[in-house]
Amino acid sequence: MNATTPMCPPRVPAPMLDEVYAPSARGEEALRGGNTRMPMDQLALLVRFDGRLSLAQIGAGMPQVAPDSFLSLFQALRDAGLLVLQETDLFQMQLDAQLQNSRMASGNANVDASVVSLRREGYYVEIARERAGRPAKQSAALDIVVVEDEPVLARFIKTYLSLDGAQVRLAGNRAEVSAELSKRPVPDLILLDVVLPDADGFDILGRVRQHALLKDVPVIMLTGKATRESVLKGIAGGADGYVTKPFLPESLVRAARTCLGLPDNRPGADPWANGDAKSLKWQFQAAA
Questions:
Q1: What whole-number distance in Å separates Cα of residue 7 and Cα of residue 107?
Q2: Does position 283 have pLDDT exceeding 80, yes or no?
Q3: Distance (Å, rounded) from C-alpha 182 to C-alpha 180?
Q4: Domain ranges of the chain
Q5: pTM score, two decimals?
Q6: Residue-by-residue DSSP string for 38-68
Q7: What does the pLDDT look like over 87-144, one tens digit per residue?
């Protein structure tokens, strides 16, 4: 089955295909709490539920997933309490379906609706998952590479993480990224913007995952690309976290600690313990 072939609806009772689900409170925590242990395939499906699309529409928008696999993933999310059934206006749903079907075949209409949902702006998340198989840290200080082309934000992130004891290296373009990722020691964590002046963050992520020395380094996408489509692209590319801008400073550290397998309540972990740091925090939050 190729990417242009509409997916056959999964084998579930016909009425269920019209049901609309949204993330439950527990599901929202997985998407915005900065700490999840969900398998990535389940997480990628959870991202697609928006409280507007029916189960059939979501399935039709995933032609690469076999119907039985789709159904298994959906049932796992529902059984885990990560999804909640939405109250729907059946008359409006039928009207929408008739309008869609007047333009195109039903299968393509479902795919079209799914694509529109994925590309809708304003999908803000704080996803982070501990990276399995990461080599044990040999020294106390963390070494972090921050790929960010906006100088003020880059300096803020560096200052913020340095207050927490990390050694931070900055890169804002293709040449700087190549230089910093080639240096030793191998970084413990990479914070990666998507939109750079001469490079694409998703391409950099792909190269990192193919690099012999960097393939196990946790990567958090830290970006203004706030659509479901972008989040799914990051997850599929091997990102361990996805934090959308604007973000709170605490969200960044929480996601970083999750990906590194560090506790969130280490003694003295709060970098805002002194007045200067708190002032910096307030300035950043006001600017965001």
A1: 7
A2: no
A3: 5
A4: 14-119, 126-287
A5: 0.81
A6: --HHHHHHHHH--SSSBHHHHHHT-TTS-HH
A7: 766 555 555 555 444 443 455 777 888 888 999 999 999 999 999 877 656 556 899 9
Q: How many Cβ atoms from other residues are within 10 Å of residue 136's Cβ?
A: 5
Q: What is the pLDDT of residue 111?
A: 82
**pLDDT in the model for residue 276:** 45
Superfamily of domain 126-287: Response regulator (3.40.50.2300)
Q: Quick one: average pLDDT of 13-30?
A: 86
What is the residue type of 266? R
Spatial separation of the C-alpha atoms in residues 244 and 46, rounded to whole Å? 17
Q: Give, in degrees to the nearest 5, the angle at Cα 158 between 273 and 135.
A: 95
